[in-house]
UniProtKB/TrEMBL annotation:
UniProt protein name: Plastocyanin
Record's keyword annotation contains Signal: yes
Organism: Streptomyces clavuligerus
SMART domains per UniProt: PbH1
Signal peptide: 1-20
Pfam families xref list: NosD (PF05048)
Membrane spanning stretches: none
Length: 449
């Protein structure tokens, strides 16, 4: 397809978009059907605004294998990508901004496999910065107000995705939200001001998802994992200065109960009692890691420090136990309680254990000895209580501090479209190191390699 033809088609599409009164739009039909004549297999770069006036218009022109490359600017639209295997990339992570103006629910919605979203900023959406999903209900935000209660909708997975070098800030629910999706990677991204959580992975099994080398701060929760597990790796992230650093839980609002089988390794989880943040829905405050009805998870070589309530806690929902979680080779320092297990109902956990951790305090006392791995899978988990500091009132997500510059995607303007694998390479936990104390310095980034 000639560049002149691209410009002509894009101009018509852009005019129709503006006449409709909405600067966002839908992507293609998802089947790679004819979108202009070009040699079979040819891949093109569609530039915004050079070849199309809006990002949505450019996405509607793209065919599988194409790159949509966006020039610096503030784009007031919601972009839906429903054509497989295209790359949406900003020329500058800081200067390419998709701004929801507190009127649009989502910045970018991905509903097709093999899509990469790279090197841009999404901000001020009423729900999500980037949503990757196979759920039609989640796209519409119904029937649950946040899009995560999907009613009677059958589970349908989106297969394969990449979110890389994205800044998602001051969004009304989640910064980066992978729901009913599999075989993906969320990496090198920054999230802040998420009124629910910065990064969220929900309703997948087996997930085959890697969440790595991200920074999540000033959110209600840095990273949240609900009803998700099976080859799900949360590794090498910096979860610092939220209200709660990380949660892994079971929730009846989503399908695929219960949550189980996630690996959390090599993360820095620190100082999660930042008052200038949105309030956490359950009132959580000063918590590094919270396990609520999650089972068979592994927590390996994380540095968990400075969380005023508790470094890692295990509890259960009214009817879902927290069983066989393994906490090994982590370093706990300067937490209110390093490890605490507490159950407010008759529902109790079984088979939870610790081994090789550096820690000072546990509730109940002596867990390092009495619950040392291995323990029988049916061994009752003891319970205790501790005093928690009172959480201060939160602030609106719109008032959270704006982020500073973040690292750029290398060669963003000179390389072609990104090929997203059908299944990502999964990390070997033996190669994941404990983060250095030097990484507590402001702005330091954790790396898994």
């Amino acid at each position: 397809m000639s560049r002149w033809a691209l410009r002509t088609t894009a101009a018509v599409l852009g005019a129709l978009t503006l006449m409709a009164g909405c600067s966002g739009g839908s992507g293609g039909d998802g089947d790679g059907s004819d979108k202009g004549r070009r040699p079979d297999g040819a891949k093109v770069t569609i530039r915004v605004p050079g070849d199309a006036p809006t990002i949505s218009a450019a996405v509607s022109l793209a065919r599988p294998g194409d790159l949509v490359l966006v020039a610096p600017g503030v784009y007031h639209e919601s972009v839906r990508v429903d054509t497989a295997r295209i790359t949406l990339r900003g020329e500058s992570r800081q200067k390419v901004v998709i701004d929801g103006q507190l009127r649009r629910p989502n910045g970018v919605v991905v509903t097709a496999p093999g899509v990469a979203v790279e090197n841009l900023t999404v901000r001020r959406n009423t729900q999500n910065g980037v949503l990757v999903t196979g759920s039609a209900a989640a796209v519409t935000g119904l029937p649950g107000s946040g899009g995560y209660d999907t009613g009677d909708e059958p589970v349908r997975f989106l297969k394969s995705f990449l979110v890389s070098h994205v800044t998602a800030t001051r969004n009304g629910l989640y910064g980066i939200y992978a729901f009913s999706a599999q075989n993906g990677v969320i990496e090198h991204s920054y999230t802040s001001g998420g009124a629910d959580s910065g990064i969220y992975v929900g309703q997948c099994r087996p997930c085959r998802i890697v969440v790595r080398d991200n920074v999540s701060e000033l959110n209600a929760v840095g990273y949240e994992n609900t009803n998700a597990g099976g080859d799900l790796y949360v590794v090498g992230n910096r979860l610092v200065g939220n209200r709660v650093g990380l949660t892994t839980n079971s929730d009846h609002q989503e399908k695929l109960l219960p949550q189980r089988d996630t690996v959390v390794a090599g993360n820095l989880i620190a100082d999660n009692q930042q008052p200038r943040t949105p309030e956490q829905a359950d009132g959580g405050w000063g918590i590094g890691i919270g396990i609520d009805g999650g089972s068979e998870n592994r927590f390996i070589r994380n540095r968990i420090t400075g969380n005023t309530t508790v470094g890692l806690m295990i509890t259960a929902t009214a009817d879902l136990t927290a069983d066989r979680n393994r906490i090994t080779e982590n370093t706990f320092t300067a937490n209110g309680v390093d490890v605490g297990w507490t159950f407010s109902t008759a529902t109790r956990g079984r088979g939870n254990c610790l081994r090789g951790n550096t820690l000072r305090t546990t509730v109940p006392a002596g867990l390092a000895d009495s619950a040392a791995c291995p323990v029988p899978a049916t061994a009752p988990t003891p319970s205790g209580t501790w005093r928690s500091p009172t959480a201060p009132a939160g602030i609106p997500f719109t008032d959270v501090a704006a982020p500073g510059p973040q690292p750029q995607l290398p060669r963003a303007t000179t390389t072609g479209a990104t090929v997203v694998p059908d299944v990502p390479a999964l990390p070997d936990t033996a190669d994941i190191r404990l983060p250095s104390p030097s990484l507590l310095a402001a702005g330091a980034r954790v790396r898994t390699s």
